[in-house]
Design brief:
The protein is an alpha/beta fold and 502 residues long. It has 5 domains: 2-123, Tetrapyrrole methylase, N-terminal domain (Cobalt-precorrin-4 Transmethylase, domain 1, 3-Layer(aba) Sandwich); 127-224, Methyltransferase, Cobalt-precorrin-4 Transmethylase, Domain 2 (2-Layer Sandwich), CATH 3.30.950; 239-327, MazG-like (Helix Hairpins, Orthogonal Bundle); 364-451, Orthogonal Bundle (Helix Hairpins), CATH 1.10.287; 455-499. It is built from 20 helices and 10 strands. The strands form 2 sheets. It has a 5-stranded parallel sheet, sandwiched between helices. It has a 5-stranded mixed sheet with strand order 6-7-10-8-9, with no helix packed on it. Strand 8 (187-192) and strand 9 (201-206) form a beta hairpin. The chain starts with a strand and ends with a helix. The model has no long low-confidence stretch (mean pLDDT 86).
Length: 502
Amino acid sequence: MKEIFVVGLGAGSFSQLTLETWELLNSAELIFLRTARHPMVEQLRAQGIPFQTFDHLYEEKASFEQVYAGIAETLLARCKAEPPVEKIVYAVPGHPLVGEKSVEILLERAPRAGVRVNVYAGISFVDSILNLLQIDLTAGFAIWDTLTVTPGRLNLACHQLFTQVYNRLVASELKLTLLELYPAEHQVKIIQAAGIPGQEKLVPVPLCELDHWPGFDHLTSVYVPPLPGRDTVCRYPLDPLASVLDRLLAPDGCPWDREQTHATLKRCLLEETYEVLEAIDDEDMEELKEELGDVLLQVVFHAALAQRRGDFDLNEVVERVTAKMIHRHPHVFGEVVVHDADDVIRNWEKIKKEEKGNNVAKERVLDSVNRHLPALLMAEEVQKKARKVGFDWSEVQESLAKVEEELQELKAEISNGGEVEEEKARLLARREDELGDLLFAVVNVARFLDLSAEVALLKAVQRFIRRFNYIEDEVVEKGQKWEELDLKALDRIWEKAKSHGL
């Protein structure tokens, strides 16, 4: 079987080269270097060791992925070319299995080509960086390719090392990514030429000034120390779900999803929310897990649509709500002292007013009510706002009396009749008004009892469905027909359903 020997040239010093690697380089018939941009190259030339490089591929190919794939294919093809070569060595900077995509691709494709790949260790730039920083790898250390890193994957409690920061543009993009998570003054360290005697540099800078440094090159990395008191951004980040939505909304994605807008998805969000409420009422945790996922999908869907318009993205949504929760809970994240839940609510409202600043003076009491709430929820919200300025009953009995008053007014309108179409239309409008007043008064009673009229009605509808289904099942089981049963007979089955706890 043909073989390729992959060796690591170390971080840059000849003294870091292993004896085994040096012997392979001296005995190889054909040596390929991924790049000649490495301090060890001059040592090879000085020792009269011939080699070829793949630097030309960096000019010819459109992306790094194509460069690395081209390297692997060239090496595999040379194994089978004539004249045969007994020992082919492929040498890379550092350690072959630390940040070397070409080696990763080679290891993946070699078995299919009938080629064995032998990997020989080298001292990587990471070893030199650990020594330079004087930190323990087991304390929690993550290494990232700066060109592909995403904020949701970072663990803020870990030491972070970002590689391939080869120019100021890459450094600027890294800075913007990190500023989503770290304070602007968080001290980071720019590391250059780690492991190369006489060239090593360790430059501490505030994160906000990261891209101000003028010396970035292909040997530059950035170290970010842990952020005290912080853990991962998200143990299970939303990136996978966001990626699914990106795929669905792509030009060759799902036709239905690509037609959706914020407006068309309103009904979906409302329906999914009510399904969550139903799962809570049923105390079905498996169903609740399922329905919460559906609501989360709607949130990510809206964020994906907004991102395509250039309005905002999912990270901004998470960042905004996280900052809001921290700011509105100074009794948890700050020094404020509270004694009970009422104190928390008072603080919450005070902070909300402060956040709105000068607009508070211009806002009327009911201006902040969400006009898109379902009617019962909106009625409850309006009544709560009115209560804060003293416009409310003092006890539940007064609100019950209002229900009786509104009920009598509705009955009076029902007893009226209209002879002509115009009178009928006016009568219908008055009846609608009185029915609305009655419902509004009932919401008031629910609020005094610390109940939600919306939830209460929803439960009543669900009970009706269960009991009606029971009636239908019994009618079918007995081979009867609906038209054969009068209301009394159906009501008896209804009461039977109630006795069964439905």
